[in-house]
Amino acid sequence: MPNPSAAMLVIGDEILSGRTRDTNTHFLATELTKQGIDLKEVRVVSDEASAIVAAVQALSAGYDHVFTSGGIGPTHDDITADCIAQAFEAHLDVREDARAILAAHYANSGQELNAARLRMARIPDGALLIDNPVSSAPGFSLGNVHVMAGVPMVFQAMVASVLPGLSGGAPLLSQSLRLMRGEGDIAAFLSDLAARHSDVSIGCYPFQHNGAYGANVVIRGQEGAAVDAAMSELAQEMGL
Amino acid sequence: MPNPSAAMLVIGDEILSGRTRDTNTHFLATELTKQGIDLKEVRVVSDEASAIVAAVQALSAGYDHVFTSGGIGPTHDDITADCIAQAFEAHLDVREDARAILAAHYANSGQELNAARLRMARIPDGALLIDNPVSSAPGFSLGNVHVMAGVPMVFQAMVASVLPGLSGGAPLLSQSLRLMRGEGDIAAFLSDLAARHSDVSIGCYPFQHNGAYGANVVIRGQEGAAVDAAMSELAQEMGL
Fold it and tell me: Which partner from A103, A211, B7, B94 sits 20 to 30 angstroms from A10, CA to CA?
């Protein structure tokens, strides 16, 4: 059975303008690979409702799971919850379970639960809350879409809350071999190797080191024996 | 007149698996912002022909410019040129101008221009070559799609080759103000400010520093006077 598939949707003008560097995608990619869920596509869109809704609908239909990052804070440009509700034609309003979480948090920290902060308790009908142990304002899962904060520390905590509940497949195993050979010198052999070992995927990533050309060859697969077999052939061919 | 729009397409399993961290998107975002071209969407797709072709067609139709990164090396998994040709129904074969560039480079470096390396001279009919001062194998522009290498040093050199030929709009100006105030405390004011200043966009990016809550407010726009006006109001409201 193939692994479950996933897509990531990053919401934020600040990524697209270059002001902020997205680190959530790399974190999620690493965690999903460990769990045997295949991240197949990432999209970054701007803070425009039409762009967010279209991306949510396309990705939700195309993959088993969708993870979103960004746009769930208290300010006017935080429109992700509205867009998810619209994408699923779900009703959106302040929900009592989310309000109670925020009320406890702000009472505890001596801050006011004002109208802006109360926006973060707006949760679509039918959604499950995602625990936020860092700053309390919850994310939520609606259908196959998991809606999380953009602040990396909060995003990472929410991923840790969500992932254990999702069933994964076989984790992807990989072995790599660093060769001081030009990519073009080994390409023909790698192509033959890939044809003989269709149960693994073989990638080749060139680098330069002190002016010399090299390449990292990475062999990935779900069965250790298959990865071993292809890697042994590669090592033998390279005289190692 | 609105600025030209752009999309970025990153091609590579190694990004989606978490093995490699994509740095090309952030570089391109920064360069486009300087030139007054609005990056509106980013997609990362796997090394599968159907995924690449579909993304190229969707982004090429949706934006003024599309920039791709990855998949133009000599190995069997480098299928970007094939996919671009397919997306535009263009003929793809070794082109003499590209072959001449590679022949000169490999003669110079004492390496063999073998069949694998010759793959990098396969250029779609009608495409313009993109200069690669780092490792010589050219990128190309076909229609509004600019096809570039994934290796960051080469990608950056190719961006420098392509961007001067594209007409930009007004560069996006921005000013930011760092406030030691909770995002929720200033959200209502920022919402009003945004409504009064529709000629700028106002973003709010929370942070924690030594346990205290703060926020960077960023005001962006194409006219300096408009950004100044909104920023003055913000500073006044904050008592600065």
Answer: A103
